[in-house]
Amino acid sequence: MATTLDCLMDYLFPVPFLTISIFYFALAFLKHPLLPLTNFESFKEKAFAGLWLQFGAAFAEQTPPQISTLLAQSKGVILDVGPGSGEQLHRFSQPQNITAIYGVEPGVTLHDKLRESAGEVGLGDKYHVISATADLDSILPGLVKAGLLKSNEVSAPEDLQLFDEIVCIRVLCGVPDLRSSVADLYGLLKPGGRFVVCEHVMNSKSTAANLVQRFWMLVGWKRLMGGCELTRDTLQAMLEVANEKDGGFAKVEIKQVDEHSMITHIVGVLTKK
Ligand SMILES: C[S@@+](CC[C@H](N)C(=O)[O-])C[C@H]1O[C@@H](n2cnc3c(N)ncnc32)[C@H](O)[C@@H]1O
């Protein structure tokens, strides 16, 4: 049971967090003063990467622990969406069961550290870094380049069913079009495959936390946090996509954790029919 003090600290956690983010924007500006004018996306990417390379490991430690149990069961060919610098890779604790992992990470500044992290946890040979976003148009060329697909197999891409498992940890909060990305990823999952999620979501169980989420969104959370939204109903989007395509998932095993928090998570597995 969270105390009033726990809730207060939770609601105020964006104060230091956003301050740090502003600091990394300023640092990126000092290092690349012309970049905001010539390529604002690249500027934002560098600012976020600076922050993540420094604090990503600490944030990964705050991930709901249930995700470790789920990733210990991972096997086959896996799509790891938005792995950042690879701070969660140690949770794939049975690498011998994994055939290959394709890590789709648009932040190119993080790629070296991501490869290094994969090597440290025994996934070096199996982990393929793909520079792409969680959209089919972006992922497919990367998969061709990595050798998982041939370019002539890309002609009817909506339902390629390539992966035994798709893993999303704190990434669907920041994709520009949630439903479209979820639909694209769903089509890449094999029948019977596992969609493993650990995502912070809109808190519909605590009115206070929900109001606080809305407040921080108004203050500029999304702008300063690389497009991340605090008020997404990610599970609903996933259920709707599966419903439209296959009449639903075969199995939905999802829990909401930290229900008092403005960073409440859904954690679990949705199994495709
Ligand atoms: C909050 S970080 C989480 C990183 C990692 N999953 C973890 O938990 O340590 C979000 C990651 O998603 C990536 N990302 C942002 N937009 C994305 C998109 N449209 N498609 C895929 N990844 C994206 C970011 O570059 C970043 O590495």
From TrEMBL:
Keywords in alphabetical order: Membrane, Transmembrane, Transmembrane helix
Source species, domain of life: Eukaryota
Keyword Transmembrane: yes
Signal peptide interval: none
UniProt keyword Membrane, yes or no: yes
UniProt-listed Gene3D superfamilies: Vaccinia Virus protein VP39
Residue stretches spanning the membrane: 12-30
Record InterPro entries: SAM-dependent_MTases_sf, Thiol_S-MT
Pfam family, one: Methyltransf_23
Protein's name in the database: Methyltransferase type 11 domain-containing protein
Organism name: Exophiala xenobiotica
